[in-house]
Structure formats: C-alpha cells, structure tokens
Write a structure and sequence with these properties.
By secondary structure, the chain is of the alpha+beta class. Helices cover 21% and strands 29% of the residues. Strands 8, 13, 14, 15, 16, 19 and 21 form a seven-stranded antiparallel beta sheet that branches. Strands 6, 7, 9, 10, 11 and 12 form a six-stranded mixed beta sheet that branches.
C-alpha cells in the first residue's frame, strides 16, 4: 500500500518516500532489464507486466503535484488540469475510429496503425486476424484468385480463398520444391501479403518481398494484409524447370523471356518431364552440371547452345512434342488422360516403365502407381510417386514419368502383369476409367 497524498504536509516534503519509489520502480526496471537479456522477441505484450507499476507511479506523482500546488496557477496549470480529460477523450475517439482493428494500434509518434508495421511486426500488429476479411474483399472486388503470403495459423481454404501460395510463416502454403515467386519481376495478378512476411523477419532472405515493400499498396485488409496489383507485361512464356528454380535466374537473364507472365513447370529431369500444350515460347532451365538426357530428347528439342548461363543453370530455347492421348480417367469430376506412347523394359531384377498422362483440369495433388501383379492379381512389386511438382501440372500439359521397380529375389516363376494408374495422395482414392477399371495394363511377362 502506498500512502495517499497529504495536503497538510509542507511544500518542501518529498512527494514520495524512497521506499515507495523503490516499490514502484524496482519491479518495473528489473523486469525490463531481464526482458532485454532474453532472445525471445515475441512482441510488446511481454512487457505489459511493467505498466501497472508505471501507471501507479505517474498517478501518485501527479496527484502529489496538484495537492501541493506545485503545478502553479498560470496557463500551464490549466493545461495540466484538462490534459487527463483530453487524453481520455482522445483515447475514446481512437478506439472508435480503429474498431475493430485494435491489435494494430500504434500511436502518432510511431506513425499510427498505417505505418506501425515499419516499426514492429509479428504479434505487435499481425496475428493473421484479417484472413476472413480478405475473402470478403475478393468477393466485393471480383478478384477470384490471389498470390498469398500469409502470417498466421488460419487456413485460407476454410474461408473459401482461392490462392497460389507464396513463402509464408508457418511455411505451409508453398511447396519449397516449386517456388513460384521471382523477386525482381513478379508474375501478374493480385498479391496479398501479411505485414510480417512483407518485412521478411522469419525468412532467410529478409528482402524476399522488397519489390512490394518499396511500393504503396493498392489496398489493405485491416492493417495486417497488404494488397498489390501487378499488371502483365509481354506475351506469356512457358519455362520448364528441371531440378532448378526460377529465382536462380539473374535479372538480366530473366529479361530474355521478355515477359513477367511466365508459366512455370517443375520436375526432376532424371525421371520426369512436363510438356505444355501451348504455342507460347518455350524455355528450359537445366542445372549447370546436368546434361540434356536421352529421355528428354524423345519429347523435347533444344537449341545447340544456351541463351544464357549462370552460376547454377543453363537457359535454352526449346520445342516440345507431347505423346498422343488415348483413354480418359476421372476422379471427383476431374479428368486425366492416359497416353498411348508408353514403354516397358524388363531386366533380370528391374522393371523400367515409362508412362504419359495428360492433365484435363486444374492442378491438384496426385500420384502415379505402377504395380507388378501375379496371375492371382496380388502385388509382388510396386512403385509410387510423382517426378514433378503437381502445382505446375497445368491444364493440357502432359507428364512423362519413368518408374523403376526392383523385383524381389524370391519372385517365383510364372506370368506377371504390369499395371499403372493414378490416385489422390490425400484420400488414397484411385482415378477410374469409364469402364470402372482403376488401372491400365501396360505389359505382360513371364519368369521362367
């Protein structure tokens, strides 16, 4: 308990005894000092414990000053007497104006809520609280799809947000093996970027979104999601990425594409190839230590010399020759076509299979299975996987996949069939042909 100010005390008496000051200052200063030594930087809220002590100290000192007449009787005294009322009124006005975005409050000295993100981010301003409002903004403005870099635990799918994921935190919206963002010349479209990811504090490259950080946003969702509209420049181009990423390209080499509307396809060139059904200019980006394989040469031709080389890549002009489609499979109304240009090689211990699949819809998670089955239909060996990032498998594209199956040493003599098909890795549902079959027989062979 602190003593109440006593007007009967002499004017020369100290407003507060030393023990009283210590009771208020030591806990606040001590907590603040300890907070400075920790490496946990999760926001201003961790300092809230010192505020009650400071509020009481300010209140007692102010009350003592008025009680002892130390404020005086001139204009300064009048200001001091009305200041608390004005401050309370100002706080009420701010609260009404800022509603319902209270988390984003910053005072005028910090630039207000519009500029507070330049001072502090993370939980000081951004807990992902505006994700639902992003969906509302899309509906009002007729924006069907956005590029999304989100900070928070919310799920965009829950709110019906249609998006292409960029690097986010936690890192769950983007496949790190299929990075779609080129930082020097982003693809066209609307970008929705959280204040925290805009500053890049959780990324190895803090300047990943510098292109946008240096621009005024075209709109804001609350004060935590910034919206930018990037127009298309030039005619579309297709870029095949064999074990490479678009952000490896230098700005000078990327400019060779003559557009920012670059449609990306990612794949492991040692086992797969994505071939676009497009008349747009086609480019191939190969790792600098990787050769143009014989497997690729069946479906793709490239210029004799690269158009550009970098520390980790070679950039070629290319032409694609996809195999012809044959039979259609369906899953949940989504179509995929099996191609006739397939190959099976039988060795002493290996079965090597090449299959082709033509995309009939928008990208979605998918995997290929190849089974070796005995005469009774039992699986004796198998391969499951996908040598490409499904995010880049676009409408009309054909995926050519090679699969290598190791036959067990104990495999008995007899007749065997090689069967291939597709399934959803999230539900394990298999795609089916019109006749109800969930796979296609590629080959039969016999072991003596």
């Amino acid at each position: 308990m602190l003593p109440s100010p006593n007007p009967s005390q002499g004017e020369g008496d100290a407003p507060l005894d030393t023990p009283d000051l210590a009771a208020l200052l030591i806990p606040a200063a001590g907590y603040f000092a300890i907070a400075l030594t920790t490496d946990i930087n999760l926001g201003y809220r961790h300092l809230l414990a010192i505020l009650p002590f400071l509020y009481v100290l300010i209140g007692v000192v102010t009350a003592e000053a008025f009680a002892r007449g130390r404020v005086g009787r001139g204009w300064a005294a009048r200001v001091m007497r009305v200041a608390p009322a004005v401050a309370l009124l100002w706080l009420a006005v701010i609260a009404l104006w800022l509603h319902p975005h209270y988390l984003s409050f910053f005072n005028v000295l910090a630039g207000g809520p519009d500029n507070g993100w330049r001072v502090l981010v993370d939980s000081n301003i951004d807990w992902g609280q505006d994700l639902a409002r992003l969906k509302t903004w899309q509906a009002v403005n007729g924006v069907e799809r956005v590029w999304l870099s989100y900070f928070g635990e919310g799920r965009p799918e829950y709110y019906g947000i249609v998006y292409d994921g960029l690097d986010s935190f936690p890192p769950r919206l983007m496949n790190p093996a299929a990075r779609p963002f080129y930082p020097h010349d982003p693809a066209p479209g609307w970008y929705a970027i959280s204040a925290t990811t805009l500053q890049g504090v959780h990324f190895a490259d803090h300047d990943q979104f510098r292109f946008f950080r240096e621009r005024r946003p075209d709109a804001k969702i609350g004060y935590s999601i910034f919206l930018y509209n990037v127009p298309a420049r030039g005619e579309p181009a297709d870029l095949l990425l064999s074990n490479t990423q678009v952000d490896e390209l230098t700005a000078v080499d990327f400019a060779l594409l003559q557009t920012n509307d670059v449609r990306l396809r990612w794949f492991d060139g040692d086992q797969a190839l994505l071939l676009p059904d497009s008349t747009a200019p086609l480019w191939l980006l190969l790792p600098v230590r990787s050769e143009f394989s014989a497997f690729m040469s069946h479906f793709l031709t490239i210029a004799p010399q690269p158009e550009a080389t970098g520390p980790s890549y070679r950039l070629y002009r290319a032409n694609a020759y996809p195999p012809q489609a044959e039979r259609q499979l369906m899953l949940d109304g989504h179509a995929m076509t099996y191609t006739a240009d397939n190959a099976v090689t039988i060795g002493d211990e290996l079965v090597m299979v090449t299959t082709g699949w033509r995309q009939g819809g928008q990208p979605r998670p998918i995997k290929i299975y190849v089974h070796v089955r005995d005469a009774a239909g039992q699986i004796v060996a198998q391969w499951d996987g996908l040598g490409a990032a499904w995010e880049g498998w676009r409408l009309g594209d054909t995926l050519v996949q090679t699969s290598t199956i190791t036959l067990p040493e104990s495999l008995a003599p007899g007749d065997y069939r090689v069967v291939a098909g597709l399934y959803d890795p999230l539900t394990n549902q298999r795609w089916r042909f019109a006749d109800g079959q969930d796979g296609v027989e590629l080959f039969q062979f016999a072991l003596p």
